[in-house]
Each structure stands twice: as C-alpha cells, then as structure tokens.
Amino acid sequence: MHPILEKVQPTSRQSFAIKEEILPYIRIGWHFHPEYELTLFTHSTGRRLTGDHIGNFGPGDLLLIGPNLPHYMRNDELYYEERPDHYIRAIVVHFAEDFLGADFFSRPELWEIRKLLAQSARGLHMHGAVQAAVAPLMESLLAQDGYERLRTLLDILQLIAQSDERSALASVGYENAIPEKDARRINIVYDYLFQHFAEDVSLGEVAALVRMNPSAFCKFLKKRSGKTFSQLLNELRIGHACKLLLEERLPVSEVCYRCGYNSLSYFNRKFKAATGYSPLRYQQKVWSV
C-alpha cells in the first residue's frame, strides 16, 4: 500500500469538498494531503495514528487534521470479516488554506478561527458539548448547497474555535519529514502492527517485512516515526487495553493477555506509566463517574 499524498478535488460548484463515506471498513492507509480535514465518525471503531500520537476512535469522534499531517486509521478486526452489523460511516470535509481567498482568515473578525487552524497542525480531537453541537451541523452539510453550506462550515469552525473542549494530538514540533521513498516501508510497518499488536510480535519479524536488519530498522523507525519499536507496540497495546477496560469491563488479567502481554506485573507497570493509574483504578475511576 503506497501513501501518501491524497488528492482532494472539490467540484466546479464548490469551494470545498464534502463526502459521506459508508464502507465495510477503512480502506486508506497512512497518508497526508495539503487540505484541512474535518471528520465526524458516526459508525466505526478502531485505532488511529495522527503524527506521532496513537489513540482509539469510535462513534462521535470529531477530528480536525491540519495540512500535510500524516494520519492512519485501522478498524477493529471484526470489520474485516465484513459483517453486516459492522460498517463505517463518516462525514469528511476537505478545504484548502486559501479556499475563500489568500487573505480571508487574516480578517480581524476571524482571529479565533485563524488560531484554530494553526493549532490543527498537530491534529485536534473535539469532545464534550462542542462535539455534540457540531455533529448535527456536519449532518446538515450533506443536505445543503451554495451559500448555506459555506455558512454552516464557517459556523462549525467558529464553534470549535470558541471552545476549550479540544485536545491536540501530535507532539509539539512534530513535522512530516518522511520522504516518499520511505513511505511504503512505514505503511507496511503500521499495517502489520495495527493488525497484530495483540500477538507475540518480535522486532526481527517486523524488520524482515521491510527487508532491514533489526539494528537498521530501529534507527529507521525512530527517525521516521519518533518512536522506538517497543514504544510503538506498547502504545498500541495500552490504547487497546483502555478500550477493553472501559467498554467491555473485562477483568484486568484478561485484558492483559488479550493485549499481547505475558506478564500481569509488567502490564500493570506499563499501563500506569502511560495513564498514571493502575488498570483496576483506571476502570474504577471511569465507571464511578
């Protein structure tokens, strides 16, 4: 699977592109594009990689991805069985930085949106009241046209800009510095790890997939992703563990082994290092709210 530059083209009657995607599962790999991307998921679960940030996604997730920020999503494995009760639905908006003119967002009245767009360089995840307010507006975009659709998009951006219910994803200073010749290797690595992280995955077998020796692969991965192999694998496993603890309320010991760990004590240490809580305390804290 080759990334990485996705081409987005609005129609001749639109200044920005919008689409409703209904698919059995997510089909695009690790990619980036020069447009801003605003996405609302209404049906779908899985894991996402935004720059150097790994997290879970699910119904209601609202994301704003800035230009040229690499991102990757993979559904939970049940989606690839193409069961009729598992499918994705998303509303996706793409707009160029100058889609309303080179200086439009430089107007003093739009300083909040201008600040928001600058922050989206790290990727933004919206939640709480602002997500609830924006979701129906995203739905309405599908039925609108012309000035009404444009006004709704600006209303959405202003709502998000005026809210503090958003979190930056990629780390400060993250840059897309991956040359195209390395993109295929990175995509192979991400595809494999996102699919097999709960298994007994070794550094050597992943290095072999991209025809590198383990030492060279470690340097390559650290340089291109900002993470070591163990960091990447652990973040995938801990993210999945959080999901199992919260959504399925499984016992900690079962979560440990279902996420690929063979030692409960090691799992507890890694989980606490990542979240600040033991797995049990994390589960209790959320379910007591």
UniProtKB/TrEMBL annotation:
Transmembrane segments: none annotated. Pfam families: HTH_18. Residues 187-285 form the HTH araC/xylS-type domain. InterPro entries: Homeodomain-like_sf (IPR009057), HTH_AraC (IPR018060), HTH_AraC-typ_CS (IPR018062), RmlC-like_jellyroll (IPR014710), RmlC_Cupin_sf (IPR011051), Tscrpt_reg_AraC-type_HTH (IPR020449). The keyword NAD does not apply. Keywords: DNA-binding, Transcription, Transcription regulation. GO terms for molecular function: DNA-binding transcription factor activity; sequence-specific DNA binding. SUPFAM superfamilies: Homeodomain-like, RmlC-like cupins. This is AraC family transcriptional regulator.
